[in-house]
Amino acid sequence: MVLEDALLQEQLKKARLTKSFDESEALNIFKNLNTLTKMEKKNNFCCIKQHQLRSALNESLPKILQILEVTLEKLVLRMDAEASVRSEEKFRDLQNQTNNNTINVYNSRKKPRLGIVADICEEEEEIDYMSKRLMLAHTIIDILNTIEAGSKSQVIKTTEILKMAILSVKYFYISLNEPSTTERMAAINRVLVLLQRQCRARKSSRSACLRELVEGALFYYGYLFGQYEDPPMDELLIPENEMIIVQNQKQSFGPNSNRSILHAGVIGRGLRPENALAGELCPPEAQTLLLKALEMCCSDIDRQVAIESYSTISLLLVEMVSTDVMYNGLPFPDEEFTKVTMERDLLIRRAFITSPILWSLLGFISTHRPALCFSSVLLRALCATCLHQWRAKNVNKFETSNASGELMETTKNLLKILAMGQLLPPPLSNLHNIIEHFEPQEIALLLKECVWSYMKDNVPSPAQFHVDNNGLQWRNSQLCKIPPQYVDTLRNLMQKKLSKLGQHYYQMFIMPEYVSNGMSQLHNVPASINPTLSDHAIEI
């Protein structure tokens, strides 16, 4: 009954039927419940009956989840609104810099505000109310951990399982936006315990948590990870009382009139920012915490279950990034077939540009082999677009490769991920260290003759990996020896640049031959001639 009253109170505040700055009874209720639950769990008070309060709270779990849902919804709405304002201001600044501050039509939207003192007071009350809501969310999650909600020993309905998984992930993203470092890490640790307990108890919870985490990072909460959002292009910001002749004059007059007719911008709004599509780097802390949350959801005592969880992340990336339901298989087709899927490949490439967290997710699954094999379509799209773009640079013979450009960074990241996932064997696995020393036509030749040809003839399949004694997946050493037709092109190009790549050439080609020849000589020595040497060879 108390929880029902608290839920009604929060719902009324959500509907603004009561004043938002009224003292919330729900916060006091859950603080008291949290204190009593911890006292009962410690078993230090003889006056408290054991397991009585925790059993009552587990029976009232649906009501607790409803209160948590109402609490988190308002926090998410405010977080999204603040992110939208920051994105709009950033795009406006970029556009003003592009047009040399000659056009600033966005300032026309700003209207003089009346009653500034009242607005400031209302804003302070809203901030105070949001801080209480956030504290209420922290307290509810703490109670769920104290009563061990979602554990395997509890009987919970499927709807409650899915709701708790969705709310846990939503609370995780809210915690990433916590301004205080101490409170942010405390909230993250709190929700990681809740996620791990749910995912280890039920497979449905693990699937729901992984989907919500990946989908939230790519779509709903991408601004937390440096995602670039396209500005609204259909909003021309034309006043209703402005005549058509005045709008036409903006096209033929002004400092940017000669460029407006070339469709380099929007009439009356100036040029588009050139570097707007590049996006930002993913914040390291947010990236680390997201990968840690995914690791908690995938961790399990059974190694096979953990491998399936990482493969689930890989399949989710294909589902959410690839726009086509066809041609999503594992094999690499012939290079000519990329002309059929070029539009799909360009959309996938754009997704990696606007959402830098995708590189982190691919790197995460590449370290848990063989999950990367299921993202073959993404690797294929990145390789095909880079290959065609490097070929296009041959049109301008005087253009050199930019070591810090977006194309070079994409190529290096792709080669790194292929090497980490053991999809490229040595010496091709070291290609990302030397790719910047080649010319554009040489890079295109390496991508086609070495990378694409090898991936086409050796399908990235989980069958190529075997399990060692520690339960880890590794590439089969017998299949790892690469035929010469895939490395001759790289060898010849490196021999032309020995002054720059001499050390890399020795590590990639000369030293492995010495090691293999030395091992073969040790194995060929008869045991009767030198038994000590033979025993040493067997130990090696």
From TrEMBL:
<dbReference type="Pfam" id="PF14838">
    <property type="entry name" value="INTS5_C"/>
</dbReference>
<dbReference type="GO" id="GO:0034472">
    <property type="term" value="P:snRNA 3'-end processing"/>
</dbReference>
<dbReference type="GO" id="GO:0032039">
    <property type="term" value="C:integrator complex"/>
</dbReference>
<dbReference type="InterPro" id="IPR040316">
    <property type="entry name" value="INTS5"/>
</dbReference>
<feature type="domain" description="Integrator complex subunit 5 C-terminal">
    <location>
        <begin position="19"/>
        <end position="501"/>
    </location>
</feature>
<protein>
    <recommendedName>
        <fullName>Integrator complex subunit 5 C-terminal domain-containing protein</fullName>
    </recommendedName>
</protein>
<dbReference type="InterPro" id="IPR029444">
    <property type="entry name" value="INTS5_C"/>
</dbReference>
